[in-house]
Amino acid sequence: MTMSVRDQLTRKKPIAKVDPGGHQDPHAGPELNRTLSTFTLMMFGVGATVGTGIFFVLPESVPDAGPAVVVAFLLAGLAAGLSAVCYAEMASSIPVSGSTYSYAYHSLGELVAMVIAACVLLEYGVAAGAVAVGWSGYFNELLDKTIGFSLPDALSYSPIPVDGGTTGLVNLPAIVLVFLCTLLLIRGASESARVNNIMVVVKLSVLVLFVIIGLTAFQADRFDNFWMAGSAGITAAAGTIFFSFIGLDAVSTAGEEVKDPQRALPRALMGALAIVVTIYLLVALAGVGAQPLEEFSSDEQQDAGLSVILENITGSAWPGTILAAGAVISIFSVTLVTLYGQTRILFAMGRDRMLPDKFAEVDSRTLTPRFNTLVVGVVVSLIAGFVPSDYLWDTVSIGTLVAFSVVAIGVMVLRRTMPDLHRPFRVPLFPVIPILTVAACVYVLSGLAAITWAIFGVWLAVVLSYYFFVGRHRSRLNDETVGTGVR
Amino acid sequence: MTLLVGFPTGHEDRSGLELAATFARSSGQDLALVTVVPASWPTPVAGHTDREFEDWSQERGREAVRAAEVLLAEHCPDVTATASWVAGRSAPSTLAGEAERIGASMIVVGAGHDGGYGRVVLGSTAHRLLHSSTVPMAVATRGYRASDHGKVVRATCAFRGDESSRRTLSRTAGLCHEIGAGLRIATFAVRGRTMYPPEVGTSPEDVVQDAWVAQAEQMQRAAIDELAAAGPLPEPLEHVVAAARTWAHALDALTWERDEVLVVGSSSASLMSRLFLGSNGAKIVRHSPVPVVVVP
């Protein structure tokens, strides 16, 4: 059967095809069905969000926005929160498991799914690299403070210069971290919900420590000239900061498992958002209030920002050491989880035959996708080892923001094209919220540098040309009658 | 050929003997029951105490042989069997040495007594042998009783599609055909646990499990074709993929015959052609409700 290109681009994966094996496991019991409480869900959100960026983002964003970085945090939080609400409707109405990519494939068609895939791959892959780079800074700081030894610059900085800063040959700790995480994932790591809760406590504790000590050095006059960077500076900072809010959508993806999505989802989302924004704002206030603005651009703060601020304030090493230790432990888990997300999205794409079959191959010994994980490990470690994080964060943000905008538009499209679709969770105040989401995302996007847009454009072009020339002809849907997607 | 049965002194558990008799009936082989008694110290001038110890040790050996002969007459008069004892410093290595000396085709041992009835409980001897024996090895479930004049009716071969597991399968299929037992090819699909916080939904591992089930079915069909090309197939021949959240559930998901055995290949990471039970193999053995045979 020949199919027009238009049909190919808009064909949707039918819901019934989600489980091609058609296998049901009588002993597995219900799939954690609707067992999550609002609180657990909230902790998912906090756990997935805090730690991605807050340990590194201040030295990046304060020079852009000045004291008004506080406003930038609010702006980014608002965009993230609105997006998460739209995401929740999408996730709850498409009864499949997975990421934005899977939802889009089932509801908006193959082309949109590929666009989203490009965004999401950028989001997870680059985020894992960026987080590993940030980890490397804290790791060196911890080594220095505990045993008085730190790796030479040649082995802890990437060769690409940033604003005349330090350069080296390779960022070795970042590569080692990614390598270790890859090994764990191949062996079949399963970080449990309990470990997640411990990590949340560790992360929040060290941040609270920072806030408490930071506030002792608080000087209100550091907030003079609050608006000095103007709206352009604030938007630019918000674009970078947005990176520290990714992960909030974890709440939305778990929506299918909460007892009463219509009530629990928004509560968990808002709860997680409130906790995260409060913590971030306090960290920003404590940070900006504790030292002059110029200090944020110093070389050493670029590496282990929060830890160095603490040391400068107290004049003694131990608070910084504790913070660095907490960061090293918790950022490790963030890298692991982000890499994991990346491999599973690629796996889903491999299963849909949008990628070579190798990506969906399970290793018989470890029962994990080994090839897939190796590829992710190698690519991410190259990014982590050779690209400075300054170039990475904005790239992550742009991927996430575009994906979220597409989701918000998708929600509006679906309300029109499939009005009868069962939606356990509906966006309140429709269509105001989706429109606001798009507006907020576009506003934050407008602050990102031209180079970020260029990188994103090239990447999107690469993914889409791959789709047009290869993926489109290989797609699993070619073998089947065109699905009509969700009915 | 002979099956060597480890016959411990002072144990009430006869599961090893029962299992060995089932094998002997099925394959027409002889049984050699071997009891290992402690060897005396290697001293050039044996003193009084040394000789006394040696006497005690030999007496234990003779007692064990007498007990074994009684049991053989009682449990499996239809099987040709001998009972003997040897002195050795370590039970596993002495049994392995004996197996080599008499050219045994398999070592059969009973279950340890530190675990539940109806499960394969590895005692210290079995454990050592499972990581060093050069011949296949069978371990009974605790309290195993064969049916009267029972023979092996079916072997389930744990299969995961790699080179070593295809070798194991083809050997098992050959044996099943010889002794007229059925063969079931089983692949286990144990779902990994989702990592938290779940950034890509809470069940990405279901997709991985589904993919593995599909992959396993394809490998099983290919393996059956390969077997068919190589020679006659055992009858009946089934294949199944057991998918579950844990190894215990996966093994429970299958139905088991009374006189069935589970065949597990040894680790593919082992460089020498001797047993080395891998991590997945160990999980299968631990949760198996029927006796297991581990082959190099």
Can you describe this structure?
The complex is a heterodimer of chains A (487) and B (296). In chain A, 56% of the residues are buried. Mean pLDDT of chain A is 83; it is low at 16-32 and 482-487. Chain A is globular. Chain A has a single domain (36-474), classed as Amino acid/polyamine transporter I (Up-down Bundle), CATH 1.20.1740. Chain A is an all-alpha fold and 487 residues long. Chain A is 67% helix and 0% strand. Chain A is built from 18 helices and no strands. Chain A has helices at 5-10, 38-49, 54-65, 69-93, 100-107, 110-147, 153-156, 172-187, 193-216, 230-241, 250-253, 261-290, 299-314, 318-351, 370-386, 389-417, 432-446, 450-474. Chain B folds into two domains: 2-139, Rossmann fold, CATH 3.40.50.620; 154-290, Rossmann fold (3-Layer(aba) Sandwich), CATH 3.40.50. Chain B starts with a strand and ends with a strand. A ten-stranded mixed sheet of chain B has the order 3-2-1-4-5-10-9-6-7-8, with helices on both faces. The model of chain B has no long low-confidence stretch (mean pLDDT 89). The radius of gyration of chain B is 21 Å and the shape is globular. Classes of the chains: A mainly alpha (487), B alpha/beta (296).
Per CATH, what is the topology of chain A? Amino acid/polyamine transporter I
Based on CA inertia axes, which overall geometry of chain B fits? globular
What's the helix-strand series of chain A?
HHHHHHHHHHHHHHHHHH
Radius of gyration of chain B: 21 Å
Low-confidence stretches of chain B: none
- In the residues of chain A, how many domains can be counted? 1
Report the CATH superfamily of the largest domain in chain B.
Answer: HUPs
> What is the tally of helical segments of chain A?
18
Structural class of chain A: mainly alpha
CATH architecture annotation of the largest domain in chain B: 3-Layer(aba) Sandwich
Strand content of chain A: under 5%
Q: Mind summarizing the main beta sheet of chain A?
A: none
What is the CATH class designation of the largest domain in chain B? Answer: Alpha Beta
According to DSSP, the number of beta strands of chain A is 0
CATH topology of the largest domain in chain B: Rossmann fold
pLDDT averaged residue by residue of chain A: 83
Strand proportion of chain B, as a percent range, falls in: 15-25%
CATH architecture of chain A: Up-down Bundle
Helix content of chain A: 55-70%
Helix content of chain B: 40-55%
- From the spread of the alpha carbons, the general shape of chain A counts as globular
